[in-house]
Each structure stands twice: as C-alpha cells, then as structure tokens.
## 1
Amino acid sequence: MELQGCWGLLWQTLIPLTVGVPMCGRFNVIDNPGLRQMLQDLGIDLQLPTAVNVAPTENITVLRRDAHGLHATCARWWLTPSWAKAVDQKYSMFNARSETLAKSPAFRHPFKSQRGLVAMSSFIEWRLEEGVKQPWLITNEQQALAVAALWDVWEGGEQPLLSCTLVTTAAAPHFEPWHKRMPVLLTREESVRWLDNSQPIGTNDTLFRGELKMPLRLQPLSRAVSNARNKDLPVLQGIGDVIELPA
C-alpha cells in the first residue's frame, strides 16, 4: 500500500521554525528498505511518501491499531485535545513528556487508549557549537525509527480534526551532549505493546527508559535545514563526519 496525500499543511498553520527548535521538533521520512521492513514487521505493508524537514503543524502519518488491525492515517502534528475550545498554538503540544502523561489534562486520556506510532527515517536536533546552533541528522543503521505518539480527535469545527503529539523522555547519557531530551524510540516488541490500547502502560514503564536501545548515527547538516520551508532532499546532505553512539 502506498500512502498518498498525507504530507503538507493543515489549515495553513505552519510555524516558520528556525534555530532553537525544541526536542523533538523536526523529522524526515525517506522511503527505504529499512523503513518498509520495519512497517512489515509490525504487520502493515506500507510505502510512506518522502517528506523532508517535517515541522510541527504539518500533516503527518500516524499508525493506529484497532479491532481491524493496524492503519495509517493522516494527523496534524500538534495535538488539539478533544475538549479544547479552539485549534491554536498557545501551548507546545507537538511533544509530550513521558513523565507527565498520566497527569496532563491534554495527554492522560490519549495515553490510556489513543496511543499511536510515527515511523520516520531520521530526526534533526540542534546543539550549541561556538555560539551557533548546529543542526544534526540522527538516525540508525536501518534508517528506520519508530517513535511513540498519542492522538486525539477535536470536533469543534466543521469537520473532525485528528491530531497527534510525539512522546519524549530523558536523554540517554551518550545523547545528552545534543539534548537533554530525546524521542521515545521503540523496539519492535515495544511498538506492538504500545499500539495495543487494550493493555495499560504506566509512566514508569521500561519503554520510557533514558537509554539508547539501538546504536545511533549523527552527522552535522547545513544550517539551511533550520528553515522549515527548505524541504528538498539536498538539505539533508551531511557536511561533516558521522558520529556513532553505541546502544
């Protein structure tokens, strides 16, 4: 199955994000054998369309499981709770801290029964180097990452709005030089468990542990990627040596 028409802006609300983007605020989807295999291992034959430098408020693909199996749906990357009065960007709702999922009014219900997954080939992080924030491309050997997500449906407009957020946790020690937080990267077994909304998961679950479950590869990028409107593949071309972080 090839997913089409999912990437792009919803309601023309893209934020012109530049340097200083908080974790996890930018990612990429590059169709490759590793990404397709990861999805097949989860039980879905899906070819995701390439999307470069994806930023909050854009339309992204979320995987959700129900009684009929695993499905890919389009969602706005900036969660709007079902009880919200309006769709806005007053609060940073594109990330959800794992430590507070059970307490947050916006996230506690999705955490119980509306867990999803976002598949990506890499994400981008910035760190301060010689007084300038330098972007880094972060991936693994397979260029296939499964990130824990939550979703909700807001019905206060003319049509329902499906939106989502990516879950973050404390950074693994090897990753701390880049950021104190990192996305919750799931193994295959963790992905299956996370997507099973019939089974409860607590905020102290081992899948939130601040450690690298797989080796990561990091490479500096041109600062042109800091502008979210730069969405051509060359913007992901590395400009320096690759750093390997062990699991």
## 2
Amino acid sequence: MNIVHEQAKRVYKMFVDFDGTITRRDIGEQIFLQYGDTQKAEAIIKRISSRELTSVEGWKALFEILHPVSIDELTKFVRSFEIDSAFLRLVSFAQEQQVEMIILSDGFEFYIRTILERENITGIPIYSNRLIEDGSGKPQPVFPYRDEECKSCANCKRNHVIENSGDDEFTVYIGNGSSDVCPAQYCDFIFAKDSLRKFCEKEKVTFFPYDNFNDVVSRLETLFSKKRLKKRRQAELKRKNLYKLG
C-alpha cells in the first residue's frame, strides 16, 4: 500500500551497496579465493581491509594471482550466490513509493547483472567497476568511475551520491563495508551493519542498524509516514563543503 505523506512533494533517492549487502557473501572476494592462490588472496584482502592497499591497488594485485579463467566461467560460478531474500521486498517497496534505487559497488558489473537477472530484477541503475578480457582472454579490471583524489574506492561512491541527488531530496544509504564509509556520510538516513556500523558507532554518526532488508523496509515505512522529516545535519554540511570545492 502506498504511504500517503504530507510529502507528496518529498523525493527520495536510495543508494544500496551490493557485496555483503544485497548478497550474503562478498562475491568479489570469493572469485579470487576460488580461482586464485588462496593464501595470497587472503593476504591481499586483509591488506585492503586494513587500508594498506587502496582499492585499485588491491584489485590489481588480486588479478595478478588469478589462475587462467574466462569471464564466462566466472559468470557460471557467481550464479550460485544467494541474496538477502528480503531484498525483493525492498525493491517492491521502492517501486510502490516511487523511490529511485541505485546500486553502488566497488565490485564488478558482470556479476551484479548476473545476480539481478537471475532474480528477474530490472531497471535499477548500477555504478561499479567492469571486467574485460585482454588479448589472451584473461580477465582485467577497468575502473571507469575512479576518482584520483579518492583513495577509498576504485569506484567513487561518494561522487555517485552527489551526482544523483539534490539538496531538496532525502537520501538513503544501505551498506556494510569499508567502501560504504565515505558515501554514507553524505546521506540523510544510513542503514549500517558490519564494518560500516562499527565506523558509525566509533565516529558517532547517526545510523539505523539492520540485519536484513526486512529491518530496512520496516524503518523506512515509519520514516516515510512522518509528517515532518529532517535531513541529517552532518550530511548537509559535508555536501555543502564538497560543493564549495567544485
């Protein structure tokens, strides 16, 4: 049922992470644990998590230890990964409420599209890294949304949040990992678990904890039904400061 808000004027934008948020496991990591040198992959992943390596450096290092495998074979591998079953409820809720949902991922488009197609989910914009095959048929990463000044992600999620929302819109961010820390801070409502939650708790950033998307939908139903809704002050200031930098 559509929620009737005083905000027939309100516009919402929802940004959702993919690996570990929509999916139960991090597909990007699992690819290299399956098709690369497992010990080396684990060491590289640990260095990425501890920020010893930037995301771009980490991805490049992981691809260097990848055994010969085609993108077709990787596509077959990723089809088996489960999503949070309640994600379909979130998609339906967003459609009912006319909320634009955008997927932001520091992973790769080929497996995001593979999973969404398997679930018959269409029409959601995706901003992520990409995979191509070089002359020898080996997969190679491409980073079309890299920001040279942003070291956190190979795909600058913050830029996508800013470019796809306006000052008169309410923004929602749902994530779980280190690549979500930066973009979430520019949003009005943050849903966090795992390392994103730990960051928010440590830095005293206002957020809603969640275990699955049922928690998110229930909270959004409550928020959207409020007659008055305030933007998060910290997020407004961060956006304004960014605008000043051009």
## 3
Amino acid sequence: MEEAGKYYVLKQKAVPEVLLKVVEAKHLLASGKADTVAQATEKVGISRSSYYKYQDVIFPFHDDSKGKTVTFSIQLDDMPGVLAEVLQTVALFQANILTIHQSIPVNGIAALTLSIEVLPGTGNLSDMVGKLEDLDGIHHVKILARG
C-alpha cells in the first residue's frame, strides 16, 4: 500500500538503474534533446511503460533549491475553503507565491497550478508537499517543474 507524503533521500548508487534512466529521459525531454517520450526512452534504453510508470515518482535532488521556482499541479474539491487551506499551507512554509491559476471545476474537481519561490526561510519542500497531500479536499499534488 502506497503512503502519500513519504519521501526518502538516497545516494545515487542505491537507486535502481531504471529510475535513474527515467530521470535522464525526463531531462532529455525538458532540454529538447528528445522530442517525444519514445525518442527519450530509446536513447536511455528503457521502455515507455517504465517511463510512464515512474515519471511522477522520481526527481533529482538539488541542494541549491533555495531561491528557485517550483510549480505544482494540484487537484482539489470545489468546496469553500480548500484553496484557502492550500495557500495557508504555503504561507506556513514561508514560500513566496508567484502565480495561481485555478480552472473552472468539472464534476466538482478543480485543477490548480501554483508556482512558488523557495526562499532561504522556506521549510522542507517534501514536508510542504506532504502537508498539502494531507489536506481535506486534495486529491493529487504533483511537482511539475523546478527551476
């Protein structure tokens, strides 16, 4: 059973090769060195199914993340106060909100794209994601980009 909000920091030698290749494929796509997932996975030597299976669960760790922008995709219930709780959680971690975009809800679920700036006083990003995932009315939290 997968537990939401559990994060681990591992040395590279402890990470299975397939996960490292997923990170490499993601980098090829982001840098424009590969135009499609098929091209990226072929270049790094993994199947597309492996890429899709792990693409949302492995990210490179950057010690220099302070002062960087992080963009989240969050699915939340269309209920009063849910967005306010998300924003309060971000404020609790002392991150600077750069942009907020919430789509029109469909079937009671809204898509939220939230970009924040991670500052020197900002708490642990993994803890922030865990707190967001634990909020009532939150279905999904995904880090889309780190810059």
## 4
Amino acid sequence: MESIAIEGTTKTPEVRLNPENGVIEIKGRSIPENSIEFYRPIIEWLDEYAKNPNKKTTVNVQLEYFNTSSSKCILDIFKKLESLKKARNEVMINWYYEEDDEDMLESGEDYESIIRVPFKMIEIVD
C-alpha cells in the first residue's frame, strides 16, 4: 500500500497518509472548491488501509480553518477511523488548536462527541 502526500495550498490542507507507521496528518486550511473531490482519495485510501491497518493508527489534525463542506468530509474520515476502532484496532486522534481559537477547540469537541474514538485536545501555544 502506497503512502499519500498532498502538498497544502491556500485553499487545501497538507495531507500525509503513511501505512507503514499508521500516521495520518491533515494540516492547514480546508476551503477547497470541491471538498468531496479533494477528500475522495483520502477516503478511498482509508478503505484500503482498513483491510490491513497498522496495529496503532495516530491521526494528527491541525487545521487553521475549514468550511462547512470540509467539515462533512472530515466527519466521513473520522467515521472510517471509528470503523477501524470497532474492528479492535488502536486509534487516537490528536486535535490541535491555537490557544486563542475557541471555535477550533469547539469543533474538535463536537467531533469527539459524535465519534467513538479517543480524542486528545492539544493546545498550540505561540
């Protein structure tokens, strides 16, 4: 299974998917023209990864901002991870937020209340 590395732009996040060490990273801004199209390869990769996952999957989400359509796609990613956890795999989501960004903290808490995967809220202090 291949790793995926998508470089970030002003509208799309940097994405790193590594099946070898089970680390998934999403970082930056997520306001793509077409969120479904942007996130499709990530969702497909997760479907493939779920067939033979690393025994521990760590997800690092460090978004500055995301729009409504991205939030739905992020939820879809988290649902895939929830299925992975239900299949008795270890999954941890690290949700990073800037110390003064209450909205991003609340977004992480909202996802945590929906998805049955452990979340760790990590404050970034500048």
